[in-house]
Design a protein that fits this description.
- The protein is mostly helical.
- Helix content is about 65%, strand content about 0%.
- The N and C termini lie far apart (about 45 Å).
Length: about 160
Amino acid sequence: MTTTTPARTTARLDLKGLAPEVSAAMGELHRAAVRAARAAGVEPELLELVRIRASQLNGCAFCLDMHTKDARAQGETEQRIHTLAAWRETPFFTERERAALELTEAVTSVQDGHVPDEVYATAREVFDEPQVAAVIWAAVVINAYNRTAISARMVPGAYQPAPRT
């Protein structure tokens, strides 16, 4: 039996190859955001939850594939990954994670009332200012990557996390 690949799973263009300087700058922005989070004491596991949640909201299959694999490689449970879209309805996430997820949703969906003061205040209850900044930067970066992957129709599936050292 012969099958054809739907257009939506075919890459549209190679943005990295067509604009390598921009791609390199995005990579450096990501690395800078990770360094800021590390310096502020924001857990790498929490950052993966931020990346997954923003990618869910944006419908980015490429980034969901990548960051769920990275989360699993860091020890995240299947249960938490599978229920992340309904995090408010589960007991599986800490107060700190909930604040980061709520802030991520507000940053991702700025058209829905911007980032409300209440959301920021909740984040400030569990994070200091550098940590809030790190969560915001993580959300901004993954939103940029989501838009890149969606626009270029990057095909999910091939990504594998780096081996843990």
